[in-house]
Amino acid sequence: MKQVLIIEEAPLLREYLNFKLSENDIEVTLAKNGLEGSSRMRIGAPDLVILDYNIGRNEYWDVLKQKKMNPNTVNIPVVLLARRIDQKKIFELLPFDVKKVYTKPLNPELLFGTIEEILQVKFKNMDTSPGVVEIHVNEDIIFIEISKGLNRDKLDLLHYKIRELVDLYEIRVPKVIVMISNTNLTFSDTPNLQKLLETIIRSCRSRARYIRVLTRDPFVRQFVETQNDYGDIHVVSSLLETLKDLLDGADDADEFHRAEFLGDRVLSADESSGEESLQMRFNAEIQPRKMGIEMLRESLKGRMITVVDDDFVVRELVKNTFEKIGVLVKEFTNGGDYLETIEKERCDLLFLDLLMPKVDGFDVLKALSSRKDPPPVIIISTITQRDTVVRAFRLGIKSYLTKPIRPQDIFKKAIEILDPNF
Question: Per CATH, the architecture of 293-418 is what?
Fold first, then answer.
């Protein structure tokens, strides 16, 4: 039996990799830091090491050096997982038998393909069928978007992504809206549909009565409504009615959110298209979580943040928020000045206002849409009209924050976008 050592700081990612490799008859050893990993590598001499580049302070380097100095481990191949990595660093890794470097969030198909190649094994039951899975959070509601099919491997990944976001936002009682679009499911999809619903119930540890399925697929409705196990799950066709329904069933403590949440800030489905829109994103009005400075500094270390806004107060808020943890912020008062720098200035995350003189936020988004690798964009705006929000999301933004904003909102969204494991 092949053996793999996983040295990874994030517990959910360790758990996911352990699950996927173990179900393919690979023996897995887990370590959460470099010291533990080096010890287990010497004792077990695995066939492959999967190593987290971001563990501790350069602990990955100590692991690699100890591997090279030991004749029993020197030839063990390594796959490196990183939030981000300088290209120059990759060349420094070559003498340590690092075969591949993958950045997070992981692409499981590529990662497992590399593992198959290195170990000379064939994973069983890998699902190559189409399927798109997205997940976002607003308040204590989790929005899950399913499109083009139900891929079983992506549903496995969904379990861990839900848990990652529930932990990040500290959601006490998750409520879930599953939006299924651009699918034509049949009886043969029954096992995967059942897996989707079971995954959501298990991951959220939530009651079925807090789960709604938004779809126009008749098979989905028929399946859910005829299964006794899912009797409390409602299949619906209107997003706004679904939100109202969920909030009506919420605890009394949630009541004060209702008026604000049911306004134009909520982006509903595109009725004109005849099908649900995949552009389901929501502005973050999240209750603050006490996040340690060191955790924030480590998560966002080395990032370059840009804010483009003609409002001095907003620029100062974004700047001061990140500079407290040592993250650099570049400021621009209008879109034109920012666009002049995009060819030469690195930007990992862009906070963008929509209403600005001369070159506004929409002009910036149009310019970025033609670039090969544009930065992720978070809109900060006073505009809440549905049509405007829809237009912004169709131009590729990641999230939409409504002024006034708080540092906690900024931090949570930055970490969700820049530092995901899944």
Answer: 3-Layer(aba) Sandwich (3.40)
Q: What is the pLDDT of residue 294?
A: 66
pLDDT digits (tens, 9 = 90+) for 31-71: 999 999 999 999 999 999 999 998 877 899 999 999 999 99
pLDDT tens for each residue of 181-237: 888 899 999 999 999 999 999 998 767 888 999 998 999 999 999 998 888 898 988
Quote the tokens at residue 271: 């009725």
Domain residue limits, the chain: 3-119, 132-273, 293-418
Tell me which CATH homologous superfamily contains domain 132-273.
Answer: STAS domain (3.30.750.24)
pLDDT score for 223: 94
CATH topology of domain 3-119: Rossmann fold (3.40.50)
Amino acid at 5: L
Is residue 240 within 8 A of residue 248, CB to CB? The reply is: no
Q: Given the DSSP bridges, would you call strands 141-147 and 175-181 parallel, antiparallel or unpaired? A: parallel
* Cβ 40 vs Cβ 18: under 8 Å: no
